[in-house]
Write a structure and sequence with these properties.
This protein is α/β, with parallel strands linked by helices. Helices cover 44% and strands 14% of the residues. Strand 5, helix 6 (126-135) and strand 6 (139-143) form a beta-alpha-beta unit. It is globular, with a radius of gyration of 19 Å.
């Protein structure tokens, strides 16, 4: 396949794996890259710099293909020394792409480009995409309300965002939120996108480092089985509709609820424990509405094989419709 994304990175398919807290680890990232996409490791999993460098090197040992490092910052937080160190290590280790999110990329662009790394930035609106483009990023990721994790608070769906971003942005556009198969990729490319970012689809794979209970829950779930939590603290997150999500939503009804009061329920450490034990109800489980499209738990390579076939089917159908 040939898009501006595949040309920029030298990859086979215009498909990128989301960073995914506690899930974006070397084994999964390498599997995605080896299958022809762009795998991603999440820097927040490795707060100790030496551990992060080791994770980068582990990924390099598992694949000789390009991969990405996700760096997410809280809105309004200045770029600190720890983030600068992560960027420096990425440059030293030859990481191809850094993906940023959560704050303006303006201060990050010179640091990432200075390290010799390509810079993608993830946004929830066209306004933010154009701002990131002006700041100098190499590509924008525009992600709709359907996504797992943190969607934008304006409730903007992926179809409108995909279509408009492709029309308005000059840099390559990668889109996400609700995309989970080759038919969705074909639709995004038809609207002018250069690639698609997927998180939820790669959770339900053999290489994903979560307990099989979570994967089986996804297979049994449908598109209505997610809820939006953390609206009260302006950090909205789409998660599985489970017991912990219900607990979080109940706490959020309290007047004056704060991050500190919610932290025992929403903390990442709770997720890490449950991902290992298989307690599907014991933590928030960020997941998108595209679970309604997931019916199996294949290998990453099998996901790409299926998507390639679906892409061809979609293309043939479109050609038939056009006569």
């Amino acid at each position: 396949m040939k898009t501006r994304l595949t040309e920029l990175l030298g990859i086979q398919y215009p498909i990128m794996q989301g960073g995914m807290q506690n899930i974006g680890v070397p084994a999964l990232a390498a599997a995605v890259s080896n299958a022809g996409g762009l795998g991603t490791i999440n820097a927040t999993i490795y707060p100790v710099l030496d551990d992060f460098r080791a994770a980068v090197r582990e990924t390099k040992a598992l694949t000789d293909k390009p991969f990405c490092v996700n760096i997410s910052l809280l809105p309004g937080v200045d770029v600190g020394d720890s983030t600068k160190d992560v960027i420096r290590v990425c440059g030293e280790e030859g990481v191809k792409v850094i993906e940023t999110a959560g704050t303006s990329p303006k201060a990050l662009v010179p640091l990432i480009h200075g390290a010799g790394v390509i810079h993608f930035h993830k946004v929830p609106t066209i306004r933010h995409a154009l701002s990131a483009e002006r700041a100098g990023v190499d590509a924008v990721e525009v992600v709709g309300y359907e996504c797992g994790g943190h969607p934008g608070d304006q409730g903007l769906g992926s179809i409108v965002l995909t279509d408009k971003a492709a029309r308005r942005c000059s840099v390559p556009v990668i889109v996400g939120g609700g995309y989970a198969d080759g038919y969705g990729v074909a639709a995004a490319l038809a609207m002018g996108a250069d690639g698609v970012i997927m998180g939820t689809r790669f959770v339900a794979t053999k290489e994903c480092p979560v307990h099989d209970n979570f994967k089986q829950w996804m297979v049994n779930a449908d598109e209505a089985d997610t809820v939006l939590c953390q609206k009260s603290i302006r950090n909205m997150v789409r998660v599985a509709n489970n017991a912990t999500a219900a607990e979080c939503l109940e706490l959020e009804k309290q007047p004056g609820i704060t991050l500190e009061k919610l932290m025992p329920v929403i903390q990442g450490a709770r997720g890490r424990t449950c991902y290992k034990s298989g307690d599907i109800n014991g933590c928030l489980f960020p997941i998108g509405t595209c679970i309604g499209l997931i019916e199996d738990v294949p290998s990453v390579a099998e996901v790409f094989e299926t998507m390639a076939r679906e892409l061809e089917e979609a293309s043939a159908r479109l050609r038939g419709c056009l006569g």
